[in-house]
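Anyone up for a design puzzle?
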C-alpha cells in the first residue's frame, strides 16, 4: 500500500529551510515505506485563497488543495516560526479546512526558526491547532534552527536523528492502523 503524504508548506520563501527540513523527512519516510507526495504551498494559492473568508468563497483550484489535505493518509504540517507562532497564511489555510476532516488523521509537525528558543512553537501553537481538529499528532515533533543548515541543506545529525525517531512513531502508527479491523 502506498502512503498518500500531503505537505502543507507555510513558508513564503522558495527555496526555504522549512522545505529543506521536509525534504529530509520525505526522503527518510520514502526509505521506510512506499509514499506518494503532494505539496501545498499556501503562499502560492493566489487570490482565490487569500480573498476567501469561508470555504464557499474559494476557487475550484483551492477547493482541490483543501480536499487533498483532508484526504491524506499522513499530513505533514511545516511552517517557519513567525513572531512566536506560525505564519498567518498557514493558519488561513486551516481556517478553511472542514472542522472534522482531520479527526484521527496522523499529522507530523515540523518547524524551523532562527534559534532553539523558537522550538516551543511546535507545542504551544501547532499542536493546539491540530488538537482543535482532533487530529492525531505524532508525539515527536521536528524543529531545526537556522544554524542546522547550510543554505537549505539540513546538516545537523541530531535533527536527522529526531526525524528518524518521529518517523518510527509514524510507521508504528500506520502499521497498527493497517492491521486493526475496519470499523463497521
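Challenge accepted. My sequence:
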Amino acid at each position: 500500500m502506498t502512503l498518500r503524504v500531503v505537505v502543507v508548506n507555510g513558508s513564503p520563501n522558495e527555496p526555504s529551510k522549512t522545505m529543506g527540513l521536509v525534504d529530509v523527512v520525505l526522503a527518510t519516510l520514502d526509505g521506510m515505506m512506499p509514499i506518494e507526495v503532494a505539496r501545498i504551498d499556501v503562499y502560492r494559492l493566489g487570490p482565490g485563497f487569500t480573498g476567501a473568508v469561508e470555504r464557499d468563497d474559494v476557487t475550484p483550484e483551492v477547493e482541490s488543495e483543501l480536499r487533498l489535505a483532508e484526504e491524506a493518509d499522513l499530513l505533514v504540517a511545516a511552517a517557519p516560526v513567525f513572531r512566536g507562532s506560525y505564519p498567518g497564511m498557514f493558519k488561513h489555510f486551516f481556517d478553511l479546512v472542514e472542522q472534522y476532516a482531520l479527526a484521527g488523521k496522523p499529522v507530523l509537525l515540523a518547524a524551523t526558526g532562527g534559534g532553539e528558543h523558537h522550538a516551543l512553537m511546535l507545542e504551544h501553537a501547532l499542536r493546539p491547532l491540530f488538537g482543535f481538529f482532533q487530529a492525531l499528532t505524532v508525539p515527536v515533533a521536528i524543529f531545526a534552527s537556522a544554524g542546522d543548515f547550510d543554505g537549505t541543506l539540513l546538516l545537523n545529525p541530531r535533527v536527522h536523528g529526531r526525524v528518524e525517531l518521529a518517523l518510527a512513531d509514524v510507521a508504528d502508527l500506520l502499521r497498527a492502523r493497517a492491521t486493526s479491523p475496519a470499523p463497521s
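A detail worth pointing out: The mean pLDDT is 94.
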